[in-house]
Design brief:
The protein is α+β, with helices and mostly antiparallel strands. 38% of the residues lie in helices and 13% in strands. A hairpin with a 4-residue loop joins β13 and β14. α4 crosses α12 and α15 packs antiparallel against α23.
C-alpha cells in the first residue's frame, strides 16, 4: 500500500460508469496528511462525551460537585450571599421596622373618666414627648455616653473593645447604646444566644439606616428610669420637676446612673444608692474629658422634687380592668397620654357599691352589672373587694345561669306559636334517665306557661323544651347573643346548665328590653349609626305579639312569682335563677332604662346556705333599682374598713405627696416624708413641720409648668 493512502469503505464500492450524474469526484489522498487536526478532532469528541456525562449526573451524586472550578464556586457563593442579604433585609423589615423605635416601649398612661368627667382609674406607663438631641445641653448626652457607651460615635453598633473591657474590669455590660435600643425596642427580655444574635444584627441594621444622633434620641426617649417613668422627659419631670432641656449636670448624671438598675437606684426610694451611682457617672465624665476635676467637685447633690401632678386615682377597678383593653385596641402608639370618657355613671357606680356592701352575703361573693338597653355599661361590681381579689365575676366567671335561662325556652315557644295561657303538664317526670324536680315538690296536673314561668316550674320547662325542640331553643339563645356551649338534645339545658358570664346573660335580657338584639356591652359611647351601617348591620327583633307575651311572663315572675322580693312601684320585669344545691343564685331584670344582673355564689363552687335567686340577689337588685331610678332614697353608705375600690374614689387616707387646700388664697398643705409643708403661691418661702421642728426654707419654683 503506497504511503499516505488510506482506503475507505466507499473506495471499495464498484463504480457504475453508465450513471455519470452520480459519479462523484474521486477524493485525492493528501501527500502530507494533518495528524494534529485529526488528534484535535478526536480530543473534541472526548471532551463532548465528558460534558455529556457530567450533564447526566444528578446533584446528589458526589462527582457532580467534585469537578466544579474555583470560579464556579466563587460565583455561586456571591449569589448565595446576596440572596441571604436580601432575605435578611426583608425579615428585618417585617419583624423590626424602623418605625417601631419611634414608639414608646410601654403603653402610655390612659385615664378613664366617668360619664360626668370624674376620674375613675389610671393605668399605664408615664410617657412624655421624645427629646431632640439638638435641644439638650451638651452635658446631658455626655453623661449617658460616658457611663453607657464611651465609644458610641466610633463603633458600628457593636463594640468589641467595650465587651473586652467589661469582661476584664467587671464594669458595664458590654452592650452599646445601639444594642440596648435594639433590645428594649424590638426584642423580648429573654436571655439566650439567639436573642443576642438578633440584637447584634438589628444593631448593625440601625447603624446603617439611622444617624448616631437619631439612635441616641430614640434611646433617651424610650429608656426606663424607674417609678413607672419611660423616657428622659418623663424621668426629668418626675424626679426634678424640670424639662430635660434645662437639666443641670448633677441631675443628668443621676438620671444616667439609673439605667443600670432603675428600680434599685430610684432616688425617690433609694437616694443614697442613686447618689453613689451618680458619682460613678461623674467620674466617667471626668475620664472622658467632659468635666474637669474642679467642675466635678463643685457639683452639688441634686434635690429631688417630686410633685403630685395627678389626682389620687386608683390604678384599677373591675370596670377599668374590663374597659382598658377595649380602649387600647383603638389607640395608636404614641407618647401622649390619653384621657377617655366611659359610659360609667359615677352616681350609679357608687350606689351599686353601697348596695353590695350592705347586703347579707355571709362568706359568699357577689357580682352586679347595670347597663342601658343599648349595651352601655353604667355600673359594675365584680366582687366584694377588688384589693383582695381583682378577678371580675361579671366578665370572667362562667357560672350556670339556672332558671334565668328559661327565658330562651319560653321565647322559643312563643315564636313557635304558643300563648302565655296555653297549658302544659306540671306532673313529675317519671320516664327517662333525667328526672328533674320542682322546688318544694310542688306539682299540678296542668299549668299555664305564664304560671310555669312565674313559679319557675322545672318539669314544665323541660317538657316545653322537648315540645319545642332543643335546636330552636339554642337558636333563640344564639340570636340574643349567648355564645356559651349548649348541647343539643340535652333536657337539662332548660334549667340553665350551660355556663356563661353574667355580662353575657344580662346583655341577652337587654336585647329583650330593647327588642333589638344582639346587644353588645360596651364601655365607651358609640356614634349614631350611619344609614349604611344601619342597612348592613344585622339586628333581629321579636314580633309585637311575642314581645308583649314575653314581658307579660317576666312581669308575672317579679310581681307574683319567685321574684317578689324585687318588686318595684313601676313596671318591672325579671327572672330568678338558682342552680343545684344553691351553688349559684341570680336575678336578672329591667325597669325604666336600666337592665341589671346580680349573681351571688362562692368562687370554689361550694353550696350556699339556702340562698336562692329570689332572696339576696332579688333584694340587691331591688335596692339598686330604687336608688338608680330615684324611686326612693338609696341606702346610706355602710361603715367600711377600707376605701371602696369600685368607682370614683374619695381617698380617706393622705398619701405622701398629697396636697390639701388651706383657705382661698392659694395656700396648700403638702404631705412629704415624715412631715408637713405649708406653701402659698407667690410666697418665696415655705414652712415645714417635721420631727426636727419648724423650718422655714426657700420654696421651689411655683410656675404652673416645669422650668
Amino acid at each position: 500500500m503506497p504511503a499516505g493512502f488510506y482506503p475507505l469503505y466507499e473506495s471499495m464500492q464498484p463504480v457504475d460508469l453508465d450513471d455519470e450524474d452520480d459519479v462523484l469526484p474521486r477524493p485525492r489522498a493528501s501527500a502530507t496528511p494533518d495528524f494534529d487536526a485529526w488528534d484535535a478532532k478526536l480530543a473534541g469528541i472526548d471532551e463532548a462525551l465528558e460534558v455529556e456525562e457530567k450533564r447526566r449526573l444528578r446533584w446528589w451524586q458526589r462527582d457532580y460537585w467534585r469537578e466544579r472550578s474555583k470560579l464556579w464556586w466563587t460565583g455561586r457563593g456571591i449569589m448565595a450571599a446576596l440572596a441571604l442579604f436580601v432575605a435578611l433585609i426583608g425579615w428585618l423589615a417585617i419583624t423590626a421596622p424602623l418605625s417601631k423605635s419611634l414608639e414608646p416601649i410601654a403603653p402610655p398612661q390612659v385615664t378613664l373618666l366617668a360619664s360626668d368627667g370624674t376620674p375613675i382609674a389610671r393605668q399605664g406607663a408615664v410617657v412624655e414627648a421624645p427629646v431632640k438631641l439638638a435641644d439638650l445641653p451638651a452635658h446631658v448626652p455626655q453623661a449617658f455616653i460616658a457611663i453607657e457607651d464611651r465609644r458610641f460615635y466610633s463603633h458600628w453598633g457593636i463594640d468589641p473593645r467595650g465587651i473586652a473591657r467589661a469582661l476584664w474590669t467587671g464594669y458595664g455590660g458590654g452592650s452599646t447604646i445601639t444594642q440596648q435600643l435594639a433590645k428594649f425596642t424590638f426584642l423580648t427580655p429573654e436571655q439566650s444566644l439567639s436573642r443576642k444574635a438578633r440584637e447584634a444584627l438589628i444593631a448593625f441594621w440601625l447603624e446603617g439606616w439611622l444617624t448616631k444622633d437619631e439612635i441616641l434620641e430614640r434611646y433617651l426617649s424610650n429608656a426606663y428610669f424607674g417609678d413607672n417613668q419611660y423616657g428622659l422627659r418623663a424621668a426629668s419631670l418626675h424626679y426634678f420637676y424640670r424639662q430635660p432641656e434645662n437639666l443641670k449636670p448633677e441631675q443628668a448624671a443621676m438620671l444616667a446612673g439609673l439605667l443600670q438598675a432603675p428600680s434599685r437606684y430610684a432616688p425617690t426610694k433609694h437616694y443614697d444608692k442613686a447618689k453613689a451611682r451618680m458619682e460613678l457617672v461623674i467620674g466617667a465624665m471626668v475620664e472622658e474629658g467632659y468635666l474637669s476635676q474642679a467642675q466635678a467637685r463643685a457639683l452639688p447633690d441634686p434635690r429631688i422634687d417630686v410633685r403630685q401632678r395627678d389626682d389620687n386615682v386608683p390604678t384599677g377597678t373591675y370596670f377599668a380592668d374590663w374597659a382598658l383593653p377595649l380602649a387600647r385596641e383603638g389607640l395608636e402608639a404614641s407618647y401622649s397620654r390619653q384621657v377617655l370618657t366611659t359610659t360609667l355613671d359615677s352616681r350609679l357606680q357608687s350606689l351599686a357599691s353601697r348596695v353590695v356592701a350592705r347586703a347579707p352575703l355571709g362568706g359568699a361573693q357577689v357580682a352586679l352589672v347595670a347597663m342601658r338597653p343599648n349595651g352601655e355599661v353604667v355600673a359594675m361590681v365584680g366582687g366584694r373587694d377588688y384589693g383582695k381579689s381583682p378577678f371580675n365575676r361579671v366578665t370572667q366567671a362562667r357560672r350556670q345561669p339556672g332558671s334565668t335561662f328559661k327565658i330562651f325556652v319560653y321565647l322559643a315557644a312563643l315564636e313557635a306559636g304558643w300563648e302565655p295561657d296555653d297549658t302544659i303538664p306540671n306532673t313529675p317526670i317519671t320516664q327517662g334517665s333525667y328526672r328533674p324536680k320542682n322546688a318544694r315538690e310542688r306539682y299540678s296536673e296542668q299549668i299555664t306557661l305564664k304560671d310555669a314561668f312565674s313559679q319557675s316550674s322545672n318539669v314544665a320547662a323541660v317538657r316545653l323544651l322537648q315540645a319545642v325542640g332543643s335546636d330552636k331553643v339554642i337558636r333563640t339563645a344564639r340570636s340574643l347573643g349567648i355564645t356559651a356551649p349548649m348541647a343539643e338534645g340535652d333536657p337539662s339545658l332548660a334549667l340553665g346548665t350551660s355556663s356563661m358570664t353574667l355580662m353575657e346573660l344580662t346583655a341577652a335580657y337587654a336585647g329583650i328590653a330593647a327588642n333589638e338584639f344582639p346587644v353588645e356591652p360596651h364601655a365607651f359611647a358609640r356614634d349614631d349609626q350611619s344609614w349604611w351601617e344601619w342597612l348592613t348591620t344585622r339586628k333581629d327583633s321579636l314580633s309585637r305579639r311575642d314581645h308583649e307575651a314575653m314581658e307579660t311572663m317576666l312581669r308575672a315572675a317579679i310581681n307574683r312569682g319567685t321574684g317578689r322580693n324585687a318588686v318595684l312601684p313601676i313596671a318591672n320585669y325579671g327572672k330568678t335563677g338558682t342552680t343545684q344545691d344553691y351553688r349559684d343564685a341570680l336575678f336578672v331584670g329591667y325597669a325604666g332604662d336600666l337592665v341589671v344582673g346580680v349573681w351571688v355564689g362562692n368562687d370554689d363552687n361550694t353550696p350556699m346556705k339556702g340562698v336562692t335567686g329570689g332572696s339576696t340577689p332579688a333584694r340587691i337588685w331591688r335596692d339598686f333599682m330604687r336608688g338608680a331610678l330615684k324611686l326612693e332614697a338609696g341606702p346610706k353608705p355602710a361603715p367600711s374598713t377600707s376605701p371602696d375600690p369600685e368607682g370614683p374614689v374619695q381617698p380617706l387616707d393622705l398619701e405622701e405627696g398629697a396636697t390639701i387646700p388651706v383657705g382661698e388664697n392659694g395656700a396648700v398643705l403638702r404631705v412629704e416624708g415624715n412631715g408637713l409643708t405649708l406653701s402659698q403661691e407667690g410666697v418665696p418661702v415655705e414652712v415645714r413641720l417635721s420631727e426636727d421642728g419648724l423650718v422655714v426654707q426657700p420654696a421651689p419654683s411655683s410656675s404652673p409648668t416645669p422650668p
